[in-house]
From TrEMBL:
Disulfide bonds join 58-67. This is Uncharacterized protein. Residues 33-68, 69-106 form the EGF-like domain. Transmembrane segments: none annotated. Pfam families: VWD. The keyword Glycoprotein applies. The keyword Iron does not apply. Keywords: Disulfide bond, EGF-like domain, Glycoprotein. PANTHER family: EXTRACELLULAR MATRIX GLYCOPROTEIN RELATED (PTHR11339), VWFD DOMAIN-CONTAINING PROTEIN (PTHR11339:SF402). Residues 112-302 form the VWFD domain.
Length: 320
């Protein structure tokens, strides 16, 4: 460009700049409102730094000098099962409730586990421990809507009338009852079936039941629950999903899943024993677990509180 043309262009812009400087010199005018126009786009807020300088404060989902760039999440910005949100002008990956892991690479379902072992000792989903000897059928765990229910059956060990252990259990899920008997036989809605069994079909199983020697394993694909049973010991693992997670979402002797053991001793009527997590006395544990008994008249069964009272009587006689 010839020098005279370049000089003319520069002079034009200098004149234009001088015009805006004179406008800004007016005390009623602002760099953020020249001719009634906000230089910041998409809802950005214009902040005056000095008479001739401003900076835009952009909404979370926008960036750039003038808030001209829209920040959006794309399907592959985060790992599997992770959620992408826009916060403070950046894409943020996070694991949803009930999941754990590095969200940039993927989130895995959190699992809660409760167990019944020995003669029998119970460990709740949130970590409380107690012992219960009753032999009447009782709710191990159930969902608040009772769409999922696990019932346990204890029997006295040998000739003892004070020590019991878990000998059989029933799982109710998808409106179907699955029973594992004391001799490890499988019944579905009262009809004998053989291991392995895929319900309702091999090619589209909702529940899978397998047996390896004396170990029985049940996968409930509809809820994500897994039950392991061997030698009178049962553990159930459930995902921290909406069905199971939260105060009062589940009930039974294994309590609920809310990250606190303080409310684990919740009676069926909703009453909670106000005791430390692992310090329930035998009497308190019996009262709590008895509240979850489903049939106190089953097969000459004995409630836990009766066994506890009889045990105390024997101890008193021995000490007399």
């Amino acid at each position: 460009m010839p020098d005279f043309k370049q000089s003319a262009v520069i002079a034009k812009y200098q004149k234009e700049l001088s015009k805006y400087h004179s406008i800004l010199a007016d005390s009623t005018c602002s760099i953020c409102n020249i001719n009634g126009t906000n230089p910041c786009l998409n809802g950005g807020v214009c902040n005056v730094l000095d008479k001739y300088t401003y900076v835009c404060s952009c909404p979370d989902a926008y960036s750039g000098t003038y808030c001209e760039h829209h920040i959006t999440c794309n399907p592959n910005d985060c790992g599997p099962n992770a959620a992408c949100t826009v916060f403070n002008h950046n894409k943020v990956c996070s694991c949803p409730l009930g999941y754990t892991g590095d969200p940039r690479f993927g989130c895995n379902v959190k699992i809660s586990r409760g167990c019944i072992r020995g003669d029998p000792h119970y460990t709740t989903f949130d970590g409380s421990s107690f012992t219960y000897m009753g032999t009447c059928p009782y709710t191990i765990t159930q969902t608040y809507d009772n769409s999922f229910n696990l019932t346990g059956y204890n029997s006295f060990r040998g000739h003892s009338t004070s020590i019991s252990y878990l000998t059989s259990f029933e799982l109710f899920t998808k409106n179907t009852n699955f029973e594992i008997t004391a001799d490890l036989k499988l019944y579905i809605n009262g009809i004998r079936h053989f291991f392995p069994h895929y319900y309702p079909s091999l090619f589209n199983p909702i529940v899978k039941i397998t047996k390896w020697f004396d170990k029985v394993k049940i996968h409930d694909y509809s809820t994500g629950a897994v039950i392991d049973y061997k030698n009178h010991q049962l553990c159930i693992s459930v995902p921290q999903s909406q069905l199971f997670l939260g105060a009062g979402r589940t009930g039974g002797v294994l309590g609920d899943i809310d990250g606190t053991c303080a409310d684990d001793y919740r009676f069926k009527n909703g009453t909670v024993l106000n005791i430390p997590c692992n310090q329930a006395s035998s009497k308190e544990a019996a009262e709590f677990a008895d509240s979850w008994v489903t049939n106190p008249n089953y097969n000459n069964c004995v409630l836990g509180k009766i066994i506890q009272n009889n045990t105390n009587c024997v101890c008193i006689l021995l000490l007399a």
